[in-house]
Amino acid sequence: MPRSSPNIPRRGLSPNAIVTIVIVVVAVLVIGGVLLFNRSSQRDDEGGAGSGEIPAELRVQPDSNTLTTTPGNTVTLVEFLDFQCPACAAYYEHVTNAIETDYAGRITFVTRNFPIESHPLAQPAARVAEAAAKQGKYREMYHTLYDNYQDWAISEDGEQLSDDERRAATFFDRYATEIGLDLDRFRADRDSAAVQERIDADQAAGQQVGVTGTPTFFVNGKRFHPSSDQVTDVDKQLRTMLDEAM
């Protein structure tokens, strides 16, 4: 008669082992979540490029101030600017003014206000540009402000940024007349709550996408990071980014 196998009791996992497994699982989940969050944050910093989506703050709206447009807005350049910012004026002279001409009809070039607090006439100039936009003349005022930057933005001695609002207002009225605006309407719009709200909304949008200074550019929602301070290098790098987007 065959001998039966002895009954060997099955032992379950000890409480210590269970606790250890739980800790390991939780750690794996936490680490995985951190990695996923970091990747997501990196995509967000790139303007949503990883997901193929452009943040709302960088999309073209029906009332966007545009310098050039293209059907379907397939390639969009957004600049957050300050009209009294010396760097913005330099970029205008050496980079963006030429890009506007050279890429006309091939990109949609949008500008948004981001007046810097340390620039005394940045807010007044932004209100002037937005008041011109109310009469369909934003582009003309944008060019006039930058083309005459030395007159209104710089002090009379040429040594520093001007803070003389009365002197600037005289120039602004002259510019409004030169580009064919109704002067009374221009002045009313310039001082209106609606224009100030528009500027504030632009600034809030910039802060939402991480803008801290001017000029700041985005191409199809992806932030442009020049690797040089030389305007000729910046121009070349920005054009390369636009060409690649096309």
From TrEMBL:
Pfam families: Thioredoxin_4. The keyword Nucleotide-binding does not apply. Residues 42-68 are annotated as: Disordered. Coiled coil: none annotated. GO terms for molecular function: oxidoreductase activity. Residues 55-246 form the Thioredoxin domain. The keyword Cytoplasm does not apply. The chain crosses the membrane at residues 17-37. InterPro entries: Thioredoxin-like_fold, Thioredoxin-like_sf, Thioredoxin_domain. Keywords: Disulfide bond, Membrane, Oxidoreductase, Redox-active center, Signal, Transmembrane, Transmembrane helix. This is Thioredoxin.
